[in-house]
Amino acid sequence: MTTPRIALAILALAVISGSFSAQQPGYTIFGPLGSTVTSMVDTNENLQHTWSSTFIPGVSVYLQPNGNLLRTKRTTTGPGGVGGGIEEITWDGTVVWDWINDIPGMVLHHDLALLPNGNVLAIGWDEHSAAAAVAAGRNPATITGDLTPDRIIEVQKTGPTTGVVVWEWRAFDHLVQDFDPAQANFGVVADHPERIDVNYPPGQALAADWMHSNGLDYIEEFDQVILNVRNFDEFWTIDHSTTTAEAAGSTGGNSGKGGDLLYRWGNPQAYGRGTALDQVFEGQHDANWIQPGFPGHGNIMVFNNFAGANFSSAVELTPPVDGSGNYFLAPGMPYGPTAPVWEYTATPPTDLFSAFVGGAERLRNGNTLITEGATGFMFEVDPSGTTVWSYQNQTGAVFKARRYEHNLWSVGDTVSVSAGGSVDFELLAGPEHANRIYLMLGSRSGTLPGFFFSGFHFPLNPDDYFRFILQNPAGSPLSQPVGMLDANGRATGAFALPPGSPAFLVGLELNHVFLVIDQGVVEFVSNPLPLNLVL
């Protein structure tokens, strides 16, 4: 057994590794379209965890910062991407939130985005009658049924099976048309690129799923939403700082433009400022902002399904935006840029092709995770386009995959001070850290600013709890604060309090991390994980 003296020596003598891995460390999570199981694989292609549901996805899955899985679920029938519900599942498979919104004409579909406040953005249909479509300027010769544009809702969790919509944006509130001059929204879309042409694509019969929006993302820096609109072959950005009333109009919010489109890119034909030669996207998926701290932060990634007739590509573009989230548009011109800043195509190009679904995500080390959705093939490329990791799902198509740097998990997040109890930890450092020593630390005073040790950031504030674990690990509430990872780079642990623990502990939030050390070298520091002490 490792002694407290050794634990102190480990931290005191450790230095930071200068090693480099071509792969981005982390775990890749995906939910096959026809499966009720969501899977997590490591960089050695080993299956490390699964979450089970009674529903197939509808159709996206994500990991929350607390380690819980957030997934759409298909509760009804409908066009491609139909969902109807959202569920949150803990590490041990417990469903802690199960919200259904599958009212006919308003069904949730395709995608979600998690907000910093814990609320969830979701795409839903917004059905209107044929008469309402004509009143909005739709050419009646191209109507075969109801008009079903999309809406975006923000849902606040209010209970295990309940939620309330606290914000909403509807495409129907921002239409323009040059067909019927008697209508209030009459105008030329080229003069109003902030609006949506209700007769686009021109001359085509109205489909049941007119827009087929299939992707959603959020950027906290600007408080904006990105909506990927497949049938328009472009994505749109929208101001989320508005009220719902402002989102229905053209004033208010940080932009001062209400719910009008702030930016659109991929197909300037959709707003009358280009031709087929200017179209970049066709059938695209997964428009998403590159995260803060990642190479290309603020740029937008897109999986372009039909970059050519029989091949796909992953695209990165730099939007013409200033530090306040305002987008530049020259009079009479389409939105920039004129071309992507980076694009991946396979060699030969046909080696990457997904006629439907797919994804592209920039990773922290500058690599890009690409999902060839139709085949269920996921792979990681470096900036030069060299493949450094790949994984073939054996159970069919995958909407998109995501890579997460989440390594410390728990079963539960509260412990009773009066009754006592415990919370189990799962430590997953990854196979690259197999058979290494780990040390678990904690803090009761938060994760920020943390501290730097030999250039490595530890997301804990050193305090009395931190020092107590470091000086007396065997006497701390942690069952195994020092130990050895197994051949898969995994270990387990627990935090436990006996019944009748001191009352002053009630209300404390403890955060824990673990670090991995090999021959005196710190190789890795995990994410922090909060634990709340309650009465």
Q: What shape does the CA trace take?
A: globular
Q: In percent, how helical is the residue content?
A: under 10%
| N/C terminus separation | 34 Å
Q: Can you tell me the CATH class of the domain at 4-16 and 407-534?
A: Mainly Beta
State Rg: 25 Å
Number of contiguous helices: 4
Low-confidence stretches: 1-10, 12-20
Strand fraction equals 35-45%
Query: What's the CATH topology name of the domain at 4-16 and 407-534?
Result: Immunoglobulin-like
Number of strands: 38
Can you tell me the CATH architecture of the domain at 4-16 and 407-534? Sandwich
Structural class: mainly beta
Description:
The N terminus is likely disordered. The protein has four helices and 38 strands. The strands form ten sheets. Strands 1, 29, 31, 34, 36, 37 and 38 form a seven-stranded mixed sheet that branches. A four-stranded antiparallel sheet has the order 4-3-2-27, with no helix packed on it. Strands 5-6-7-8 form a four-stranded antiparallel sheet, with no helix packed on it. It has a domain of 141 residues: Immunoglobulins (Immunoglobulin-like, Sandwich), CATH 2.60.40. It is mostly beta strands. The longest helix has 10 residues. The protein starts with a helix and ends with a strand. It is globular, with a radius of gyration of 25 Å.
